[in-house]
Amino acid sequence: MKITMILDFVCPYCFVGEKILEKALKEKRIKPEYRFLPYELSPEPNPQPVVNESAREYFKKNIESWAKEEGIAINFPTISPKPRTALAFEGLYTAEKYGKGIEYIRAILEAYWIHNKNIGDLNVLVEIAENLEIPKFEFEDSLLTSKYREAHKKLNEEVSEYDFDVVPTFYINDEQIANFPRKIEDWIHKI
């Protein structure tokens, strides 16, 4: 089974949606092949969203309660403005080189949504890579030299050709899942 996910790391729906999928896959004992496609919610030069009280209220009402129903821990990040995510996506290339793509994606999402870390910061990304036993100097060098910047730009262009309205958007074996499943049981019936 191949699962493709269009996501951004600063999207709470992406974090909770991926966690729900992870739980369903574990329950069904499925280890899929993953492909991740970036969709930056505030790419350069767009202004980054500022975290404020109305964002906190929306989060508590819509995200926190949903996550809690599904047994998923999540915290409201206080980093303001929200981090840009291009650098974190560029780090995915090195992670995938070492067969750690899904672990990297989950670690970046958790760093932001659980531990309130600035995932736009090089040092935070290097620490995550090191914790995943991805060679520190290779990972850091790839980001400092923009080794994968062009590949990332090309992938962003490819994503813009997909027909989707929201992130996350999931595909199973190249077939788009309409209205991504918001409950573990719903995913279990789809996979």
Question: How would you explain this protein's 3D organization?
Answer:
It is a single chain. Helix 1 (12-28) packs across helix 4 (101-113), helix 1 packs across helix 8 and helix 3 (86-97) packs antiparallel against helix 4. With 191 residues, this protein is of the alpha+beta class. Helices cover 51% and strands 9% of the residues. A four-stranded mixed beta sheet has the order 2-1-3-4, covered by helices on one side. The chain contains eight helices and four strands. The chain is globular, with a radius of gyration of 16 Å. Strand 1 (2-7), helix 1 (12-28) and strand 2 (33-38) form a beta-alpha-beta unit. It has helices at residues 12-28, 53-69, 86-97, 101-113, 122-131, 136-144, 149-160, 184-190, and strands at residues 2-7, 33-38, 169-172, 175-176.
Main sheet overview: 4 strands, mixed
Low-confidence stretches: none
Order of the strands making up the biggest sheet = 2-1-3-4
Distance between the termini: 9 Å
Give the helix proportion (percent range): 40-55%
Oligomer type: single chain
